[in-house]
Amino acid sequence: MGHKVDTLPGPTWPTRANAEHPARGDNDKGAPEVSWAWKLGEVRGIGIHVHGTFLVLMAWVVLSHLLEGHTWRVALDGLVFTLTVFGIVVLHELGHALTAQRYGIRTRSITLLPMGGVAQLERIPDKPRQELVVALAGPAVNVALAAVLAAILVVMGEPLVPGKVEVVGGSLLVKLMWTNVSLAVFNLLPAFPMDGGRVLRALLALRLGLSDATRVAARLGQGMALIFGVLGLLSNPMLVFIAFFVWVGAQQEASSVELRTALADIPVRRAMITDFRTVAAEAPLSWAGALLLAGFQQDFPVVSQDRLVGILTRTRLMEALAERGEAVTVESVMRRDFITASPGELVDDVVYRMQRHGCRTVPVLHGGALVGLLTPENIGELVMMEMARQDVGRRATT
User: In a 3-state reduction of DSSP, which class is residue 41?
Assistant: First the structure.
């Protein structure tokens, strides 16, 4: 699953970082809720949210202008410009998201934060050419907006003079045009986790493969992060903050691809837990609580007449014990919305479905019979074993 974070430009420093975030949920269907965020609207099924901390930024913009001695009108002008720039970031993210939809990749949501916009893509495109198109779509939106604004300014007879983009003062159209230019240029720097790094990775992947291409692009991204860090210490402290996100984003991207590589072509039967416990639908919660304390298992398949009818998650069990007591039946509190897997499916495909539906534990069925469970814990153990084997193989060939 790929998540992108677009950081906003201040007066002179547009940048961007990307991060991977695990899908949250407790066997719930649909996209996970964003904490402390409110939904503003929806575009082609993509929810646009604003985080609560975004309001702090808005208050700071107004207050900082007032403390500098500006009038309320000037402060409101600064607020309008800031909101407009955030709107541009949303359009940038929609460029990525709507292009990804063409390749069957869903975007859970776009969330506005004080430092920019976060788009939650389910995964990166499988084919390098697809990733190339998706990566270029965001900067292409900024280029198109800059071109339209430039044309308007030419018609109006206003000069297209580049300069420092200030929040207050100057022509709004000129400021927005150069904001779009700076966003496009900076995002195309060839380093993860910016769009340019993804473009570079896609081009390298055509010859090197995804894993090696990611490794090269990630190292270049971290190298540029070091440069940003040094420049930040010497001049602008904000570059140090940017360097941190670039470094972490590159590292997370490399780790994500290593995970996919480790899980490639591995069937569920090799990863599933076969020593597990089930609970009867009519059993009291006290029985499920005793099983939870007695073993390692956190979520329990619920059966009725040898048929799987639900999942009792640890979260739901604890909530029900606190609110309703231990005498109520498992059936009354179990999750009925869950996904299943088959032993022959690939783990990577099931992980994708787990992230999409927000599931933590997946029952494995063979011929209708429950034969195993797939959980993040045993998937993680499988990944560590596979990566250890690959390390041994690489050492043996050198």
Answer: strand
Give the C-alpha separation, 23 to 31, whole Å: 8
Tokens standing for 380? Answer: 């993680």
| Range list of H helices, the chain | 52-67, 72-102, 128-156, 172-187, 195-208, 210-234, 238-263, 285-294, 314-324, 347-357, 376-397
What is the DSSP secondary structure assignment for residue 38, as one 8-state letter?
Answer: E
Environment class of residue 341 by beta-carbon count within 10 Å: exposed (0-12), middle (13-18) or buried (19+)? buried
> What's the CA gap between 249 and 217, in Å, rounded?
11
Q: What is the per-residue pLDDT across 55-110, written as a single tens digit (0 to 9) for each?
A: 777 777 777 767 777 677 777 877 788 788 888 888 998 888 889 888 888 887 88
Structure tokens that stand for 285 in this block:
């919660």
Q: Which two tokens stand for residue 99?
A: 């292009």
Q: Which residue has the tokens 């992947």?
A: 205
Burial 58-84 (b: 16+ CB within 10 A, else e): eeebbeebeeeebeeebbebbbebbee
CA dihedral angle for residue 54, residue 55, residue 58, residue 62, rounded to 10 degrees:
-150
User: The pTM is what?
Assistant: 0.64
CA 213, 218, 223, 227 torsion: positive or negative? positive
CB atoms within 10 A of CB 384: 11
3-state secondary structure of 368: coil
Contact (CB, 8 A) for 273 and 373: yes
Nearest-angstrom CA–CA distance, 297 and 313: 10
Amino acid at 396: A
- CA neighbor of 92 nearest in space, from 21, 33, 8, 201: 8
- What residues contact residue 342 under an 8 Å CB cut-off, 6+ apart? 268, 364, 365, 366
Rounded distance between C-alpha atoms, residue 205 and residue 212, angstroms: 8
3-class state of residue 243 by DSSP: helix
Q: Which residue in the block uniquely carries the two structure tokens 């100057």?
A: 170
The long-range contacts involving 198-205, CB below 8 angstroms and separated by at least 24 positions, are 198/124, 198/131, 198/132, 198/134, 198/135, 199/132, 199/135, 199/136, 201/128, 201/131, 202/128, 202/129, 202/131, 202/132, 202/135, 203/128, 203/132, 205/128, 205/131
Q: Which residues touch 103 (CB under 8 Å, ≥6 apart)?
A: 125, 127, 130, 134
pLDDT in tens, 165-187: 555 556 778 888 888 998 898 88
